[in-house]
């Protein structure tokens, strides 16, 4: 496995410290390139089938004003798979099977602001360049683009098309290659499932009853909203104050069954962590243990048990869990600052594991969180 620093942009000063270097896995096989979006579930078309399928997607780069759990709004730029409507952060998940062919058309539908993000020194970022960590395009296409694996750029109004054949099962991160664009919300999850093998992340991996994808991210609301106003941002002073799972912080993570674990006692789950953020996140479970079975699109030869898993920026981790104790358990980032909303605890990168009895009831009542979201 080859490690490579996160590609920063032809104007490196524009992103000084926006993100830490991230691992880009270059699997020497043709797999995939690019950008989708929706709350980290799946704008999916992949099901388990033996015969390879062809999937066609169109994604639009747009902006949005995301409402946080505490009512704060944050300006974002992200992907949408809808012909009309705002961006989603994270972008729609792509879920396909090993051997499938995927065609993606990306439309840069942003305002001119997208191409003119200023930094503190007055430098401007470049046009969006899309990539997928762990995926490689044919060498002739790399040469034609002249920008390395998986990269194509687009100006406002342009359409760029990508094609790839999904080959290596695993969990991947797709994102814009310009760190400031990625920080603004241009990222999502890609899942490649083994062909003809149901309910297993990899051939020979433990079976699961339910599967979840948690896209982890962090945002500096002051920086994001300065971008909206057209103000210069010194990314060296990046200070995140919101920490998200699938674009939500607690307690909003409790409002969607895809953002918390909801099972009956004795069931097993597969959780795919995809870190699209700029910081390390330490995912921790109460009452149960993880078995780490994969990382960065690769099955581990020697799975291991942990109750806290470190996921660095740009990395992915696949964990299996047997949930055999009824009740409700915390599931959160073990870094204290990351379980707050704008500095207020509790919040942030936190959700629950809800393990019901066979009759569907839970011996522990759901707490009254007193939020507008809970009343919906």
Automatic annotation (TrEMBL):
The molecular function terms in GO held by this entry are:
copper ion binding; oxidoreductase activity
Give the lineage: Bacteria, Bacillati, Chloroflexota, Ktedonobacteria, Ktedonobacterales
Top-level lineage group: Bacteria
User: What's the protein name?
Assistant: Plastocyanin-like domain-containing protein
Which UniProt key words apply to this protein?
Answer: Copper, Metal-binding, Oxidoreductase
Q: Which InterPro entries match?
A: Cu-oxidase-like_N, Cu-oxidase_C, Cu-oxidase_fam, Cupredoxin
Q: Which residues form the Plastocyanin-like domain?
A: 88-194, 246-338
Q: Which Gene3D superfamilies match?
A: Cupredoxins - blue copper proteins (2.60.40.420)
